Each structure stands twice: as C-alpha cells, then as structure tokens.
Structure prediction request, 239 residues.
Amino acid sequence: MTTVDVLAIAAHRDDVELTCGGTLLKAAAQGQRTAIIDLTQGEMGSRGSAELRAAEASHAAEILGVAARVNLGLPDAAIVNTPETRAKLVRVIRQFQPRVVLAPSITGKHPDHRVSAELVTDACFLSGLSKIEPDVPRFRPFKLVHSLTYREEPVKPTFVVDISDEFERKLLAIRAYASQFDGVKQAGEVFPNGEPLYDIVRHQAAHYGSLIRVQFGEPFYTAETMRVDDLLSLNVSTF
Prediction:
C-alpha cells in the first residue's frame, strides 16, 4: 500500500465526495498523493446496493485522482468505536502514513458520521503508540481536520479551502453515485430545500466560498488555533 500526503476517512462511499472531494482534487493538482478509506460498504442504504456503490466509488476515485481507495468493511449503520475497530483503522493509517487526515464532522444526524469522527480521532492518536498493533511500525499523522460541509456548527470553520477551479470535477465525482443521488432532493447531511441535490451542493459550496471571497469553497475545523507568521499573507479581505 502506497504512502500518501492526505488521507480522507469517512463512514460511507460518497461521503468523501460530498464533503471534501474538492480539497482532494486540489491536493492532487498540487502534486500531493491522496487516498480514501471508506469505513463501510453502504449495504444499508435505501437506494442501490453495496455492489453498485462499490463500482460507483471506483469511478469517483478515478475522477478525484486518488492513489488508493480501500474499504474497512465495518457494518453500515452500526459503526462502533471499540478497541477492535480502532486497531483495524490504526493498521491502515500506518500503512498510508498520511501527514494530514480529513475526518467527518464531530456532529451529524447519522450515527455513523458522529461515531466515525470519534473513531478516526482515536485511531490517529493510537497509531502513534508502539504497543498498539505492534507488528506494524507506529506512525501518527501530523494534522487531523474535520469537514463541516453542509453543516452550520456552533463554531465557525477554522479555514475554508478554495475549490473554485475544482468544483465542477467535484460535482462529477458526486454524480458518479447515480444510484444514490439522481432525482433526489436530500441525502445524508445534505438537508432539503426543494431543489435537486446537485443544485444544493452547488449553492452550499458557493456559500462557503463567499466566506473567503471566492466562488466555491469547502470548510474545515481544527481543535488547534491556526498559526500566522506573516500578516501580509492574510488573503481574505475585511471590506
């Protein structure tokens, strides 16, 4: 398994595309190696099947330009944060050795999303402990960030990634999941407003982009305060 710079981990096939697909596209365009871990096969989804979603996920991965995409095979709609699931995820994190991990939001209406955020956080920490899964050399990512896309959290995003150049390809990756999204007006954390889901995705990305004065964006949260060494590098206008 190849090592990567950025690793996105999410509960279901299509979660990454919806929440941080543009950021993965941008990273790949900058020459960074990226990968995805889907924790479940999505077998409990109301539309389509796990087999169909696997094919759709493979197509989406090609669009996103990721170096690898793996599935952990945890039970859909029943993800738990236990020593066993943490150990399973630790092993894959160590194999990829990412500098940055993109995780789900720490809140969410789907229990898999909330539990996955905790599971990913814990696994990233435990990955640095040598007595956890000792047959695989320890490794701890440098940075863990949580996606806030489609969420209005109590706190503002720590930062927003400009995906203006990447948005149309992000949408192509989302459209790869035709079994899930064609003809629907809501899905997962994408709340309905009467419009087709693809239009909601566009308008939400435009909203986040407006926060940093660009056309489209994806928001993220970190527990740490962001560091600035050069005030002249601050590039979002106040006025």
Notes: The first helix runs from residue 15 to 29. The chain has a mean pLDDT of 95. The chain has seven helices and seven strands. The first strand starts at residue 6 and ends at 10.
